[in-house]
From TrEMBL:
Source organism of the structure: Ataeniobius toweri
Comp. bias regions, Low complexity: 631-640
Similarity annotation: Belongs to the adaptor complexes large subunit family.
Residue ranges of every copy of the Clathrin adaptor alpha/beta/gamma-adaptin appendage Ig-like subdomain domain listed in the record: 718-818
Gene: AP1B1
Protein's name according to its UniProt entry: AP complex subunit beta
C-alpha cells in the first residue's frame, strides 16, 4: 500500500503569512491571500490562518474578495465556529451596489454547507431572489437548491419554493432557466412534491425563454418540457414546432435534449398528419451531424441513436451509409455502428449491408470480425429475402479456414436453420468438414445441435457424436447438455443402431456428473425413454418455434423509459437510473405519453433492485371468487367458483405421472407401449423415495384454516386451483400462475413460474404494493436456480399481514411487481 504524505506548512511560514495578511498595504495583503490559496491548492493545511483571511473580506477589491470566498468555502466545514464570523460580511455584501459582489456573496453562501450559519443566510437570500439585477436573481435561484439540500424544512418554511416558482415568470430568460433547474433538482429528491406544476401558461413562458438563454439554460428548459404531457395533439404539435429550431444548435447536449422532447411528443401526433412526416425528416440531419464529432461524442450519439432506431427506425432508414465503419474508428464506435446497421437493414438496402459486412469479416480485429459474422446471420433472420445470399456469404467465409471466422459462422448458421427449417440443409456437409477445428464451447454446441437435429440426413452422425463423447467430462456444461440432447434425438431417429451410445451418455450424465442441470436432464430423458418412448419422441422431437430477430431488442417498457432519458447516462448504459444511481429509492419511472393511462397503477416507489434489468408492470391478481377476502376475513363458506371438493381417498395414485416416485419400478417391468428396440435394455435410474399421501383430503375453507378439528386432517388440506396471474405478453416472456393457501397457520402464495422467453431468467424478486389487508412477503423470494427457456419452477412465498394498508377497489385486489 502506497502512503501519501501531505506537505506541511512550517510555523515560520505561517507566521510570515499572518503578518502579511494583517498588513495595511492592499497589494501586500492580496499577494498574501494568493500565497495562502496556492498552499491550499497543493494540499497544505493553512486552516490556522482562518481568522486572518476572514478579516480580508472587508475590501472593495473584487479579486481579493473572490480569493477570500474561495478560502472560506474550503475551510468553513472544518471550522464552523469561526465561519460564523463571516456572516455579517455576507449580509453586508448582499446589499453592495455592485451586482457582481452581491451575486458572489449569495453564491458563496450556497456553497458553505454548515448548518450553524444556514439560518443567518435566509434574509440575504430572500433579498437577492428579488434583486433588481437578473444576474443576482439567477445566482440566488441556484442557491435555493443548494440550501434545500442542506435543510429542506428551512427552505419550505421560509417560502423560498414559492419565490422560485414566481421566478419562472421572470422577464430574463437566464433567471427562468436557473429557476427551472433549481426546481427540477428539488423535485428529483422529492418526487411527490409536485413542485413543477406545469400548465399551458407555464409551458408558453418556458418556450419564450428557450430562444434567448444560454445553451445550458436551454438544456434545463428542454429537460423540463420533456416531463410535461400535452393535453392533445394540437398542443403537442405546437410545442414541437417551437422546439424544432434547437435541432440545429452547435451544442450536442442541446440537440439530444431537443430530440428527447420531440420523440416524446411525437407519440401524441397522428401518423397520417403531414407534420408528422415533416418532423421525421427534420430529426435525421442533426443525428447524422453528431457522428462527425470526436469518437467519444460519436459513441454517446450512437448509443442514443440505437434507442431511437428501435422506437422509430423510419427516422434514419435512408441514412444507412453514415453508419458504415471507417478504418480509423475506435472499436467501441465500430461495434455500435454495426449494431445500428442491423437494426436499419431492410429489403431495400440489404445488398449494400451484406457487401459491407463481408468486408468487415476480413478485418484484423478479432472481436469486430466475430460481430460482423454474427451480423450476417442476423440479417438472414431479419430479412427473409436475403437469407440465401447470407448463407452463401457465410459459406465463402468458412472456406477461408480462419478458425474464429469458421466458428462464428457455424453458430449463426444454426440460428438460420432454426428460422428456416428444411431449407438450407445442403450446407451441412461443408460444416461437418470443419468439425475438428472447433475449440470454442458455443461453436461446438452449435455443431452438435445441427448433427442431432438433422441426424437422419447425416450417414455418420453416430460417429460424429461419439467423437465428442470421448472427452465428455472435459467439455463445458453448454456442450455436455447439447451432446446429451443430440444423442437422445439420434436414438429416437435410429434406435437399433445407437442404443449403446445413448446408454453411455445417460450413464455419464446421471452417475458420473456433479452438475445438477446435466444430471436432472439425464434423469428426465432416462425416465421418458424407459416409461413411454412414444411420449419421449413427441417431447424431444417436437416442432420448435421459429426464432425471431427481435430477441436482441430492449424490452418495450424499458425502451420507453430510456427514450425519456435521452441525453443522460441512462441512455448510454441502456439501463434505468434506478439501476446505477445510489440512493435512488425515490426515482420515478418515466413513460411515453402514448403508453400512459393504461390502467396500471404503481403506488410504491421503485424497488431499487441492483440487478434489475427489466421491471414488469404490476400484475393485479384476480379476485378468484373472493379467495383473498375469504382468506383474511375468515369467511368459512367454500368459494362459489371452486366446485365440489375432491372425494376422500386412502391414497393418491400417481400412476404413470410419478416419474420420480415409487411407482416407477412397476412401470418399468410392464409393457410400455413402445417399440421393442427402444424399450429393451433400459434399466431404471435410482428412484427417489415415494411420498405418502395416506391422509384423507377434504375441501372447503374450513380445512384451509385447519378448523375442521377432525382426526387425520392435513394442515391446509384445501388449495384453490392455480390461475394465471401474469400472462406471457405482460410478463415479457415470464408467466406466473398461482393461488393462496394456509399451511401450518401461515398464509402462503404458491406460484408456478414459467419461462417462455428465449433467454435464461435469474435474480427474481417480488414487491407488494399497499393493499387492503397489509399483505407483504415474510421473506425474500427463493428461486434457487436460473430459469431456462421453457422451464417451469414451483415457488412458495410465505406472507405476513404487517405491511402498509390502503383500501383497494375492489377490496381484494392485490398489486404485485415481479422483477428479474
Amino acid at each position: 500500500m502506497a502512503l501519501r504524505f501531505l506537505p506541511l506548512v512550517c510555523a515560520g511560514e505561517i507566521f510570515e503569512l499572518k503578518a502579511e495578511l494583517n498588513s495595511d498595504k492592499k497589494e501586500k495583503k492580496k499577494e498574501a491571500v494568493k500565497k495562502v490559496i496556492a498552499s491550499m491548492t497543493v494540499g497544505k493545511d493553512v486552516s490556522a490562518l482562518f481568522p486572518d483571511v476572514v478579516n480580508c473580506m472587508q475590501t472593495d477589491n473584487l479579486e481579493l474578495k473572490k480569493l477570500v470566498y474561495l478560502y472560506l468555502m474550503n475551510y468553513a466545514k472544518s471550522q464552523p465556529d469561526m465561519a460564523i464570523m463571516a456572516v455579517n460580511t455576507f449580509v453586508k455584501d448582499c446589499e453592495d451596489p455592485n451586482p457582481l459582489i452581491r451575486a458572489l456573496a449569495v453564491r458563496t453562501m450556497g456553497c458553505i454547507r454548515v448548518d450553524k450559519i444556514t439560518e443567518y443566510l435566509c434574509e440575504p437570500l430572500r433579498k437577492c431572489l428579488k434583486d433588481e439585477d437578473p444576474y443576482v436573481r439567477k445566482t440566488a435561484a441556484v442557491c435555493v437548491a443548494k440550501l434545500h439540500d442542506i435543510n429542506a424544512q428551512l427552505v419550505e418554511d421560509q417560502g423560498f419554493l414559492d419565490t422560485l416558482k414566481d421566478l419562472i415568470s421572470d422577464s430574463n430568460p437566464m433567471v427562468v432557466a436557473n429557476a427551472v433547474a433549481a426546481l427540477s433538482e428539488i423535485a428529483e429528491s422529492h418526487p411527490n412534491s409536485n413542485l413543477l406544476d406545469l400548465n399551458p401558461q407555464t409551458i408558453n413562458k418556458l418556450l419564450t425563454a428557450l430562444n434567448e438563454c444560454t445553451e445550458w439554460g436551454q438544456i434545463f428548459i428542454l429537460d423540463c418540457l420533456a416531463n410535461y404531457t400535452p393535453r392533445d395533439d394540437r398542443e403537442s404539435q405546437s410545442i414541437c414546432e417551437r422546439v424544432t429550431p434547437r435541432l440545429s444548435h452547435a451544442n450536442s447536449a442541446v440537440v439530444l435534449s431537443a430530440v428527447k422532447v420531440l420523440m416524446k411528443f411525437m407519440e401524441m401526433l397522428p401518423k397520417d398528419l403531414d407534420y408528422y412526416g415533416t418532423l421525421l425528416k427534420k430529426l435525421a440531419p442533426p443525428l447524422v451531424t453528431l457522428l462527425s464529432a470526436e469518437p467519444e461524442l460519436q459513441y454517446v450519439a450512437l448509443r442514443n441513436i440505437n434507442l431511437i432506431v428501435q422506437r422509430r427506425p423510419e427516422i434514419l432508414k435512408h441514412e444507412m451509409k453514415v453508419f458504415f465503419v471507417k478504418y480509423n474508428d475506435p472499436i467501441y464506435v465500430k461495434l455500435e455502428k454495426l449494431d445500428i446497421m442491423i437494426r436499419l437493414a431492410s429489403q431495400a438496402n440489404i445488398a449494400q449491408v451484406l457487401a459491407e459486412l463481408k468486408e468487415y469479416a476480413t478485418e484484423v480485429d478479432v472481436d469486430f470480425v466475430r460481430k460482423a459474422v454474427r451480423a450476417i446471420g442476423r440479417c438472414a433472420i431479419k430479412v427473409e429475402q436475403s437469407a440465401e445470399r447470407c448463407v452463401s456469404t457465410l459459406l465463402d467465409l468458412i472456406q477461408t479456414k480462419v478458425n474464429y471466422v469458421v466458428q462464428e459462422a457455424i453458430v449463426v448458421i444454426k440460428d438460420i436453420f432454426r428460422k428456416y427449417p428444411n431449407k438450407y440443409e445442403s450446407v451441412i456437409a461443408t460444416l461437418c468438414e470443419n468439425l475438428d477445428s472447433l475449440d470454442e464451447p458455443e461453436a461446438r454446441a452449435a455443431m452438435i445441435w445441427i448433427v442431432g437435429e438433422y441426424a437422419e440426413r447425416i450417414d455418420n452422425a453416430d460417429e460424429l457424436l461419439e467423437s465428442f463423447l470421448e472427452g465428455f467430462h472435459d467439455e463445458s456444461t453448454q456442450v455436455q447438455l447439447q451432446l446429451l440432447t443430440a444423442i437422445v434425438k439420434l436414438f429416437l431417429k435410429k434406435p437399433t443402431e445407437t442404443q449403446e451410445l445413448v446408454q453411455q451418455v445417460l450413464s455419464l450424465a446421471t452417475q458420473d456428473s456433479d452438475n445438477p442441470d446435466l444430471r436432472d436432464r439425464g434423469y428426465i430423458y432416462w425416465r421418458l425413454l424407459s416409461t413411454d418412448p412414444v411420449a419421449a419422441k413427441e417431447v424431444v422431437l417436437a416442432e420448435k418455434p421459429l426464432i425471431s430477430e427481435e430477441t436482441d431488442l430492449i424490452e418495450p417498457t424499458l425502451l420507453e423509459e430510456l427514450i425519456c432519458h435521452i441525453g443522460t447516462l441512462a441512455s448510454v448504459y441502456h439501463k434505468p437510473p434506478s439501476a446505477f444511481v445510489e440512493g435512488s429509492r425515490g426515482v420515478q419511472h418515466k413513460r411515453l405519453p402514448g403508453s400512459a393511462g393504461s390502467g396500471e397503477s404503481v403506488d410504491s416507489p421503485d424497488t431499487g433492485s441492483a440487478a434489475g434489468v427489466s421491471d414488469a408492470p404490476p400484475a393485479v391478481i384476480p379476485s378468484q371468487g373472493d379467495l383473498l377476502g375469504d382468506l383474511l376475513n375468515l369467511d368459512l363458506t367454500p368459494p362459489a367458483t371452486t366446485g365440489p371438493p375432491p372425494p376422500a381417498t386412502s391414497g393418491m395414485q400417481l400412476g404413470a405421472m410419478d416419474l420420480l416416485g415409487g411407482g416407477l419400478d412397476s412401470l418399468l417391468g410392464g409393457d410400455l407401449g413402445g417399440s421393442a428396440a427402444m424399450g429393451a435394455g433400459f434399466g431404471a435410474p435410482p428412484a427417489a423415495t415415494a411420498a405418502s399421501f395416506s391422509a384423507p383430503v377434504s375441501g372447503g375453507l374450513d380445512d384451509l384454516f385447519d378448523l375442521g378439528g377432525g382426526v387425520g386432517m392435513p394442515m391446509g388440506g384445501y388449495s384453490p386451483p392455480k390461475t394465471v396471474w401474469l400472462p406471457v405478453m405482460k410478463g415479457k416472456g415470464l408467466e406466473i400462475s398461482g393461488t393462496f393457501a394456509r399451511r401450518a397457520g401461515v398464509i402462503q402464495m404458491e406460484m408456478t413460474l414459467t419461462n417462455k422467453a428465449m433467454s435464461v431468467m435469474t435474480d427474481f424478486a417480488i414487491q407488494f404494493n399497499r393493499n387492503s389487508f397489509g399483505l407483504a412477503p415474510a421473506g425474500p423470494l427463493q428461486v434457487l436456480t436460473p430459469l431456462s427457456p421453457n422451464q417451469s419452477i414451483e415457488v412458495t412465498l410465505p406472507l405476513s399481514t404487517v405491511g402498509p394498508v390502503m383500501k383497494m377497489d375492489p377490496l381484494n385486489n392485490l398489486q404485485v411487481t415481479p422483477t428479474l
